[in-house]
Amino acid sequence: MSMAKRTDPQSPAPHAADSHDLIRVHGARENNLKDVSIQIPKRRLTVFTGVSGSGKSSLVFNTIAAESQRLINETYSAFVQGFMPSLARPEVDVLDGLTTVITVDQQRMGADPRSTVGTATDANAMLRILFSRLGKPHIGPPSAYSFNTASVKASGAITVERGNKTKAQKATFSRTGGMCVRCEGRGAVSDIDLTQLYDDSKSLAEGAFTIPGWKSDSQWTVQVYAQSGFVDPDKPIREYTKKELRDFLYGEPVKVKVNGVNLTYEGLIPKIQKSFLAKDKEALQPHIRAFVERAVTFTTCPECDGTRLSEGARSSKIKRISIADACAMEIRDLAEWVRGLKEPSVAPLLTALQQTLDSFVEIGLGYLALDRPAGTLSGGEAQRVKMIRHLGSSLTDVTYVFDEPTAGLHPHDIQRMNELLLRLRDKGNTVLVVEHKPEMIAIADHVVDLGPGAGTAGGAVCFEGTVEALRAGDTITGRHLDDRTTVKETVRESGRALKIRGATANNLRDVDIDIPLGVLTVVTGVAGSGKSSLVHGSIPADEGVISVDQSPIKGSRRSNPATYTGLLDPIRKAFAKVNGVKPALFSANSEGACPTCNGAGVIYTDLGMMAGTATTCEDCEGKRFDASVLDYHLGGRDISEVLAMSVTEAEEFFGAGEAHTPAAHRILERLVDVGLGYLTIGQPLTTLSGGERQRLKLATHMGDKAGVYVLDEPTTGLHLADVEQLLGLLDRLVDSGKSVIVVEHHQAVMAHADWIIDLGPGAGHDGGRIVFEGTPADLIADRSTLTGEHLAAYVGG
Ligand code: ADP
Ligand code: ADP
Ligand code: ZN
Ligand code: ZN
């Protein structure tokens, strides 16, 4: 079913709306917004543009979406509200004409290993019903096909209290689930690789342990094993008797006396599990983290072969296909299989399932399988999966808010995304999109351009109106809308290459490729063609390679660009030196913290069932510090004022004069270099977008000695004008002797490459091959691939 057919060609003309059909924002002042007043037509597609940091998110997410959520919360009874976070009203004078807002963002899906593409949508639930009705043999209710439900059969005595008498009563309980008992529905089992723990040709006395920190003879942990009496300390481990080995590896905790001291003895495996594996991996020291990564191996569960399902659940089939087989198929193939099931008894179910699966295909995700762990999806893929629910929804008059829906999409895929957004609009919804790609801006009914610059230099509406008017007008966005870069006259030559041989990660078809070093290489291909599989799954990850992606940065809500980049250290020291006090005072995470909010600046309300929210601490007014700390100054500013500076301001402040701090200045320069000059240095990391996080990581790694940088779509979140700056940065990296490999769809970046590697021709099993390698000029001349055609049109246009 093609989408074009579903899109109503008779959709009302833009701007036909009368004044009753407007969302009116008057006097918005969130973050950098300067008293913004705009009118947004309802049931139309409005695109918000502007350089990054200009205030798009502040207007769309922090004002419009936030107020809608707050108003919805207010409709609950006082009793229910008591359990809900009280949301602060956004800084805005008037907001009217709001409808319910649904935000579809790029937040990755939870890292819950039991969540899959199928469970995150309704697809698995529908398949379970289907199998419980049609599967042969018949094995029970839908839950019998669920890997998240364990089979339980319990019977025994329960005590019942009646008045002051208690009496035992027999009870039985049973439930049929489909969970594989071996891996508990995870599909994988973890194993500890014993060869990483000790050298079995040695005895404990000879120093058999190879665990970091477990070397020294005098160390208690080691002594407990040697002196426990359970094993012979002078016998090589490989010569242990069965009993010795069992006690050594799995012994239950017991008290032992070693050299007169009472200690606890426990088998090596549980000991390792407690002392290394139970801890947050990201928080470990790098060499210990490396040990944990070596020692713990995940293998496909041998019992269920990775399907997560019990044997019973897998035995029940429809036309020779089990539910596990169905979930392992690429969704587009599954859609065809379901289409072939003609079964009047379940016709409505088949229709609903069919529609959901078709939505995946239409949205460009037909190459995924339902059993794909949700945590492994990219930000763009996650956003499109979340869209699936809404496409099928019959709600109308909803305001949908999207954050860069084209992230991760090849020019070829953008067309399809555009059709989906128009379809949502044509169902009677208001669609608000923050977006940079000209291909998407082009379909807007209405454009709101924010700027002109970032941070304090932005926050104003530079333009409102149609795309034609934007093009004709004189804003940065308007001027760049029809930008066409040309390919470079000369490209850099490379002598060396990173050789990849026989790569088979995910869909890769035994790929052999030489990635040239010392140049800018761009890896292209439609979504799902295998780009990430190639650069993340096949490039050897050693010290020479730095991979900078958009994944969330681990750390507390107190982390901010200053703490993350190490900038805060020299700043604290400079404050301490000038004022003759301890550096720790200037840390909102330690001594200097406001006692009311413990230095968070906000009071968090966490609710299991709803997204938690933050309200500003009334004591320190969000400044995070104890009032006494704010009496100390550096260059005329207190620490909270410094943390409220943008990177650009701070770069000037620490660059010269009274506050001159070279160590801080160096870090700030790098942040400016990656285009983050507008970020506030004390802004919580949780408020950064994926693209901003990536550029922050890049800035942190710029001083590293690594030779190869691998970047994943670094233009995400960047305005056309920002892209030029990014290209300059990549050039500087290459000119300083580094090799840069980027996965990108932005055509300006492709055109700027020295070398292009194009994967395809399609997605999933239709991709995974190298369809082109060479210079951009050759790619255009060839026009033999989708990327080549699009790039030719782009530079030619
Ligand atoms: P855009 O979406 O156009 O990239 P934003 O609305 O995210 O821009 O940011 C506008 C300005 O507000 C920037 O200077 C940014 O650093 C600042 N800002 C955004 N979110 C916060 C926040 N939670 N706290 C403080 N400053 C913020
Ligand atoms: P691209 O980066 O070009 O969008 P990917 O390398 O992410 O493509 O995906 C290539 C193929 O491999 C797709 O069919 C995708 O579903 C599959 N794939 C990618 N990552 C995983 C994973 N972690 N587990 C299973 N399949 C995956
Ligand atoms: Zn299993
Ligand atoms: Zn406080």
TrEMBL record:
> In terms of domain of life, where is this protein from?
Bacteria
PROSITE patterns named among the record's database cross-references: ABC_TRANSPORTER_2
- Which keywords describe this protein according to UniProt? ATP-binding, Cytoplasm, DNA damage, DNA excision, DNA repair, DNA-binding, Excision nuclease, Metal-binding, Nucleotide-binding, Repeat, Zinc, Zinc-finger
What GO MF annotations does this protein's record show? ATP binding
Q: Does the keyword DNA damage apply?
A: yes
Where in the numbering of this chain does the ABC transporter domain appear? 17-477, 491-786
Main localization is cytoplasm
Is Zinc one of the keywords UniProt gives this record?
Answer: yes
Per its UniProt record, what SMART domains does this chain match? AAA (SM00382)
Region called Disordered, residue ranges: 1-20
Subcellular location as annotated: Cytoplasm
Record-stated family: Belongs to the ABC transporter superfamily. UvrA family.
Protein name, per record: UvrABC system protein A
Task: Supply the source organism for this entry.
Answer: Streptomyces mauvecolor
Source organism phylogeny:
Bacteria, Bacillati, Actinomycetota, Actinomycetes, Kitasatosporales
